Amino acid sequence: MQDMIGVLYEPLLETVYMVGVSTLFTVLIGLPLGTVIVITSDNHIMPKKVLNTVLSYIVNITRSFPFIILMISIFPLTKFIVGKKIGTTAAIVPLVFAATPFFARLVETSLREIPWGVIEAALSMGSTTMQIIRRVMIPEALSSIVLGITTTVISILGYSAMAGSIGGGGLGDLAIMYGYQRWQTDIMIITVIVLVILVQIIQSIGNRIAKRLDKK
């Protein structure tokens, strides 16, 4: 048991590091991106058809790439940003690229659920675009956005496991190295169990936070 913990410890930390940093950058990029897609759509507070179309196409194209292909295809960019193509830190770049458009669409869905009457009331009081976004749209959709973040974190966790297949480190790398290459089935089973537990913890925390923020 002691040996098992020792084997799992470092890969688990690597996975938490990858998922945590990737989630941070995904939210920082995806939240504004999803918001801009909403407000620039027809009949919203800042309609700009060309910008909206371009951003929507970029999001759709990026989302269509299978993660492994995406990871390999942006190796040059990854090396430019972090100085290497593979490794735990290098895996963060494709993780962010894969998760950001996914999260942006979740943000878009959350913001579109806001009753137009609420936004219209803010417009009638002379609120600026930024004031409506910050004081009306984001607060109103915050509970749903938190659930979107939760779903995104779980997706990133799954992507990080796939990243291990080509040297990304973490629990995925552990499962490949011991469970597949060395035929140590017990390590693979434990790795899967740990991933399942992580998903349950993340979902539980996300649900609780969202419930507290829900104004309905």
UniProtKB/TrEMBL annotation:
Residues 12-206 form the ABC transmembrane type-1 domain. Keywords: Cell membrane, Membrane, Transmembrane, Transmembrane helix, Transport. It is found in: Cell membrane. One of its GO terms (cellular component) is plasma membrane. The keyword Kinase does not apply. InterPro entries: AA_ABC_Transporter_Permease (IPR051322), MetI-like (IPR000515), MetI-like_sf (IPR035906). The keyword Transport applies. Its main location: membrane. GO terms for biological process: D-methionine transmembrane transport. The chain crosses the membrane at residues 12-34, 54-74, 86-104, 145-167, 187-206. It is a multi-pass membrane protein. Belongs to the binding-protein-dependent transport system permease family. CysTW subfamily. This is ABC transporter, permease protein.
